[in-house]
């Protein structure tokens, strides 16, 4: 009976020693090479998980982390890395879904705004404030309010592109003179011209019929106090 008991204990000891996952990982990275015989007994996937765990812990320690806790086994490391990857995947999925939700809401608001307002560039020419040298690019924009509510103010970005659609210059626009419901209004403004800036020279010298003008709306304020705000995530 005693011989059988001893044989059982010895068998368990041998099995325990032969199980690479029960091997403790040294806290000192310089001793990790001692794990090679045990690592070679793992599957390829387990080896990858262990390598990722060791790399993550060593990098974490460099930036002030705790490193590997004393007593951590190869099996513990593999399971912890699996859990970490699952949590990371879940977080990335949540971020992707949130981004898609925000983009969908933004697209819906933009479509609603575009049904209401149209902005067109109807004039562009250089002008001089003090003599013969051009120092401004004068522009005239037309606003069409296709909605049934008066607009009190419009905010957005004007994009001036060439015939290929490449951007020449983009400028923020705030217009607060209003546009009555189902009517049009015009805006006259100017852009400071710098003769040493390529974008300014190209904007000035490009014919109006070769410019692709795009208005990117951000906020429309209505006279009744309501608004459409594409920048608002709420």
Word description of this protein:
This protein is of the alpha+beta class. 39% of the residues lie in helices and 28% in strands. It contains five helices and seven strands. The strands form two sheets. Strands 4-3-6-7 form a four-stranded antiparallel sheet. Strands 1-2-5 form a three-stranded antiparallel sheet. A hairpin with an 8-residue loop joins strand 1 and strand 2 (136-145). Helix 3 crosses helix 4. The longest helix has 43 residues, at 74-116. This is Lipoprotein.
Describe the SSE topology.
Layout: H1 2-18, H2 36-39, H3 44-62, H4 74-116, E1 117-127, E2 136-145, E3 151-161, E4 167-175, E5 183-192, H5 198-205, E6 212-222, E7 227-229
Antiparallel strand pairs: 1-2, 2-5, 3-4, 3-6, 6-7
Helix pairs in contact: 3-4
């Amino acid at each position: 009976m005693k011989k059988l008991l001893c044989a059982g204990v010895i068998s368990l000891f041998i099995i325990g020693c032969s199980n690479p996952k029960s091997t403790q990982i040294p806290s000192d990275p310089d001793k990790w090479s001692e794990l090679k015989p045990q690592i070679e007994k793992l599957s390829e996937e387990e080896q990858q998980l262990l390598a990722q765990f060791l790399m993550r812990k060593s990098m974490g320690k460099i930036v002030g982390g705790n490193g590997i806790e004393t007593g951590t086994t190869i099996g513990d490391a593999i399971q912890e890395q699996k859990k970490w990857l699952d949590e990371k995947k879940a977080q990335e999925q949540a971020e992707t879904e949130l981004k898609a939700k925000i983009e969908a809401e933004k697209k819906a608001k933009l479509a609603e705004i575009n049904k209401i307002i149209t902005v067109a560039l109807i004039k562009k020419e250089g002008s001089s404030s003090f003599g013969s040298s051009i120092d401004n690019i004068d522009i005239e924009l037309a606003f069409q309010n296709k909605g049934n509510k008066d607009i009190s103010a419009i905010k957005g970005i004007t994009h001036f592109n060439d015939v290929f659609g490449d951007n020449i210059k983009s400028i923020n626009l705030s217009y607060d003179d209003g546009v009555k419901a189902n009517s049009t209004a015009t805006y006259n403004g100017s852009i400071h011209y710098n003769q040493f800036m390529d974008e300014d020279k190209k904007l000035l010298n490009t014919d109006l019929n070769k410019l692709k003008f795009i208005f990117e709306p951000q906020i429309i304020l209505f006279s009744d106090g309501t608004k459409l705000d594409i920048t608002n995530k709420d």
